[in-house]
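A.,

Following up on our hallway conversation. Structure tokens first:
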């Protein structure tokens, strides 16, 4: 086999936090490739993580990018925004130290700065804190919303398949769990779950897709 040494290339990193953000991934890629064309950079490789939380520090494509950085295959890293890179201060700081140790500039396209300069490193730290705070606020908001919905007898999730009112009515008439399940066309487990809620005095749950 020929031992051919390839010149280092630019890494483009893209991340979305859920499967429904495919259009977001396309937007990131389109903007970054457009930027590369305008900058006259032809040699680049794309690392794309889909449906991965920004708080997660182990991602398939991100891990591959880090390995390539350590092997000297990457000369610069460009990401759409720092929040796409991650939303944890410790994680982001560790990655910045890695690229710094290799003399690799880290460029945040949308945020408009890079780690080439001391001011860019300062901006990186500020944006890292902001990204983590935004994630924490989202988590708190989601938990609060779910708790409020639960208190109102609502559950966010898959479409409800059991006819609660009919189950409760048949149970009140003395029908067995088996007969109720057959009549309502649902599982005995669903019937038991509904009866449990009834005995606890809880209202009929209204699911978001019902």
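Then the amino acids I'd put at each of the 210 positions:
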């Amino acid at each position: 086999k020929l031992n051919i040494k390839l010149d280092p290339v630019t890494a483009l990193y893209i991340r979305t936090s859920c499967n429904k953000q495919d259009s977001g991934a396309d937007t990131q890629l389109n903007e970054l490739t457009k930027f590369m064309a305008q900058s006259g950079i032809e040699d680049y490789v794309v690392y794309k993580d889909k449906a991965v939380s920004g708080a997660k520090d182990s991602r398939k494509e991100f891990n591959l990018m880090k390995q390539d950085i350590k092997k000297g295959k990457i000369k610069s890293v460009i990401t759409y925004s720092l929040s796409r890179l991650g939303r944890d201060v410790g994680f982001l700081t560790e990655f910045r130290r890695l690229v710094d140790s290799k003399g690799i500039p880290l460029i945040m396209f949308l945020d408009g700065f890079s780690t080439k300069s001391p001011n860019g490193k300062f901006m990186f730290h500020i944006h890292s804190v902001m990204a983590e705070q935004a994630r924490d606020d989202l988590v708190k908001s989601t938990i609060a919303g779910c708790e409020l919905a639960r208190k109102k007898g609502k559950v966010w999730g898959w479409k409800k398949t059991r006819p609660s009112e009919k189950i409760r009515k048949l149970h009140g008439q003395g029908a067995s769990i088996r007969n109720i399940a057959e009549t309502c066309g649902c599982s005995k487990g669903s019937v038991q779950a509904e009866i449990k809620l009834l005995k606890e005095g809880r209202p009929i749950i209204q699911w978001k897709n019902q």
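The chain has a mean pLDDT of 80. Curious whether your intuition agrees with the design.

B.
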